[in-house]
Amino acid sequence: MSNEAVTLEKAIASITQAADELKPEEFIDYSVILDVHINWSLEEFTPEDQYEFLEALKGVLESHDELTESIAWDLVVVLLPYLESTLPKTAEIAESLIDLAARTGNPREVYIKVLQGLTSLSWSPSSPYDEDEDDEDEAEYSGDEDEIPKKHTENKDPAIFARHSLRKFNNLLKALSTVHPRISAKFPSKFLSTELSTILTSFTKATQSLDCDGVTEIVERLVAFLKVVRPELEQARRPSSFARPPLPPRTSTGASIAQAPEEEDPEDRLQSRLMVSFLSHILSGYLLRTQKPQLASKIQHEGHVHPIIRSMEEVEGRGLEVGWAGKYDEMVLRPNKSKVPGGKTLIDQERDHRAANTSIKAAVDEISFICGRLGVTTEELMTVCQAGPDLDHDSDDDGAEIPAPKAAEDIPLSKEGALLLLANRLSVGISEIPDFQIYPEHSSIAENFMIYGPGQTQPAIIDAILFLGALALHSNGLGDTPDSAEKFFIYLQIFSVISTNSSSAQCRFLANSHVARCLRAHPNEAIRLAYVRDTLEHCPFESVKAAVIGVLKDEIIHATTPVQKPELSVPSTPNSIFGTSLCMTEIFDSLFPDLEKVFENDQAAWEKFKEIHPRFAATVNFYLLLLMNKGLGLKMGVDKAFREKVEKRFLEPVKKRVELFRVAEQKEGSSGNVAVVEMTLERVKEAAGDEE
């Protein structure tokens, strides 16, 4: 067909004349004529001409009701390409025509075409081969090879392409919101299951291409869609400490009379469960897959990266944090003490970043609230989170298809989604679980997600695990600690890894604090001391060793500080192994390793020293405390022989290589660490000299 064959005037005349001349039962012939002109319009017309063409089509449809009802199903997909128009009014009139199709067409036929549109929606530019393959698949799906427009966007910019896809998705979802209530069925759950599964698949693809704002917009629209499916959800309002009390329900309207009964029938319960499962998957995909907001500056920290982190480099920059753990620390654990006065820290930057992205927390709150309204209990969420790993099931389940079940009990929640729902619910005080303790509840949850699942690479999972751990320990303590020290050590090691590998400064701090609090809460001090020694001997992370030295220091200070007891007239010190020289004897070789053996030779000494520097600095500062506090040093057995042994095996190997280290540091273009080490060693020398 040449340019001379069809002009705008001829196209308008053709679709107008055909509508007037063809009989209603000949609607298929009209659809063929219309499809030909729509394809030609997309290929050859300017955006302004496309608008004129669609305006004429709208006039035809509004004046031919019977024809419109018959062909509406065919309009949903073929009109989608117009939404990419650079002329706003062209995209807007295409949206109005899609809406008209959803309102007037046969609901079941339109329903099928909407799901087809969602299924075939692409979120990123694909190769010509993929496009041809998609066209063939879509034609096979419909049985008509000519019904899918061959015109694809010429703009291959991924961001623009994704925004166009977002507009198409929103219009398809709006059409589904219109057509869903129009479908009469004995078992509406069958339709609901299919559409939720289709939406979930498209949403999962969207998270890979859209920015955070785009994905948040979809989540908000999905919540609005569910309120159309279940109108009583629209009448409910999420509780807020800043909102006025809700008004009493009005009894004069039909909507009030139609409120859900106390006992739902099986079909209603099945629909509720489908929506809950859907939301749990959406929440999981939203918080675990979404790109981090662009406002956030990438915060890095020094130190070695855990292998599991390296293997996930391709997803760097993904995953959202709600900030449950940080907020609990600020409001409950350390009120008015969590901020360092004077200047901004990395943790302050993270707080500001979350405060600038309130839409994320609002979306999570809305999902959590609706799940509660649909019957999800805290006990069920706890049960799902504590359930052992299913080795035959892919834990990355937020893109999984929701099957068409026969009963509500057959529909599982997303395991990751259940954890995130549990954290959010407990963070706002909707319910309390008096027996929620570290053992057995939180330890099993932490192992399920951080050992048997990929939680170590997912910021939201880490956030939830840290929050629930802090809540359990602060509210109810350790619980029944296991007889095996190894099980306790494994639990602590989960958080030790977070403290060294997390990209979040706040999560690293909170994980380290949780280790210290749990260790301090354990009633058996022999196990506490054994953990310190085990960490110093076997932990692969030097920053964790440095942290455990800080824990050791706190234990010793606590054990040697007099405490006033009601039954005694004067303060007394606790009877603890941490306040005796036996403590130093037990861990001396682990605390002060022979660095001559560690360095091996001068050529490798600098690289090795850089690796152990965090632990070395922490140990020297701890040793300096023992030297400067003569009473404390005496209790801990720091005598002349002790000092000479520390000097020979731990300090001297570094002292004689200081100049070597300084030169190597300068060659690398860095400075400062060696000078600080040299200054600290000088202070140790002075303090040790005072002991002579």
Automatic annotation (TrEMBL):
Chain residue ranges for the region called Disordered: 123-156, 237-269
Organism whose genome encodes this protein: Pyronema omphalodes (strain CBS 100304) (Pyronema confluens)
Superkingdom in the source lineage: Eukaryota
Protein known as: Similar to UPF0649 protein C1442.02 acc. no. Q76PC4
GO CC terms, sorted: cytoplasm
InterPro entries: YAP-bd/ALF4/Glomulin, YBP1/2
A Pfam entry, by short name: Kinetochor_Ybp2
A biological-process GO annotation: cellular response to oxidative stress
Residue ranges with Acidic residues bias: 129-147
